[in-house]
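Weekly structure sync, notes
Attendees: PL, DS, HV (note-taker this week)

Item 1: NCS2 family permease
DS walked through the input record. Source organism listed as Paenibacillus urinalis. Sequence as pasted into the shared doc:
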Amino acid sequence: MERWFKLKERGTSVSTEIIAGITTFFTMVYIVVVNPGILSSTGMDFNGVFIATVLASIVATLIMGLWANYPIVMAPAMGLNAFFAYSVVAGSGVSWQIALGAVFVAGILFIILSLTSFRYMLLNAIPESLKHAITAGIGLFITTVGLQNAGIIAASESTLITIGNLSEPMAYLTIIGLLITVVLMAYNVKGYLFIGMVITAIIAWIMGLFQMPESIVSLPQGFTTTAFQLDIAGVFSNGLYTVIFTFLLITLFDTTGTMLGVAEQAGLMKDGKFPRSRGALLADAVGTTSGALFGTSPTSAYIESSTGVAAGGRTGLTAVVVSVLLALTLFFSPIISVISGIPAITSPALIIVGYFMINIISKIKWNDLEEAFPAFLIIILTPLTHSIATGIGVGFIFYPVLKLLRGKGKDVHPIFYIFAVLFFIQLVFLDH
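Item 1 (cont.): predicted structure, written out as tokens:
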């Protein structure tokens, strides 16, 4: 372990790395419940997505830990799973098999880009203000999904959205679960999202909202219901090129940004550069591609990895420990399946994740109209149109147009003009 992970060189030990891994696991394990819950709304089998979520996370995280030697965890990304379920499948009316095909194609492109410097060129082409806006817009979108699932907000013929019936059990239990989780968060309790879900689940059980399964532990079942069911031909026959582009775009800077942030926190950056970046980026790319084969939405680096770093994690051994613990969750599918069927248990996690994502709007230069207005459009239109791709598209069209009208067209990267044209064609001529 010393030779492979360079424990002494990074000032850590096996015991510290194990504790860091356990800490990270409890802060991110909510995804094995939330992700299948979101994707199963498309008609996908819950157990199949659950297994796919765990396996894709393990594959990507092991590559990150064993090859790149970083204490960073990979798993299906919040936001991308919502885009998969609500924008691609529900919004575009295509099957989940075709949506998986789009993820696979995006994954192959990830792998190709990760082996070249073109990935960094794409990242550099997107202005920082729009990167922050996309994150914030997705955060609002996820929060909206959480509030809607819980019944706290509801459809209205006169105002489109209105307050729901808060006397309904799911609505007030969500509020209780949200308060419990926020209090845990305020007191810096490690794993507050997961612990909040457990406490809310216990309350739901006491209220009689669900019955405990006959067996809590069982062998994994249902993998073949989603595994290798992707439809790649359907991606091209339905012209889902902007869907592929959106998967590619979001994961590009979301994963890279998270990796850089966690690496910097751990003191692993060298002269402002990201060592062994190819292995880290390939972990993301391979995780996304394998996840599509298994039956889940794209993977991404998890910001929750920072909790393990705060606990002392400095090497890939932290990631390996998380992978082992994730593997153990495969045998608890009966209880996880039951819990996921209660929106009040998972909705608080969605709302809080949205809160963290929208925090980034403070980094947008709001006094610069050319930067701020396109960012504003992305943030507001993503939840209102219930489409991440639409929000991004409108912002990406307005940005170069404003720059050109202000005589600053040369400030825009040439590739960005291609982005704008592609989104314009999609929104005006194809998105009907």
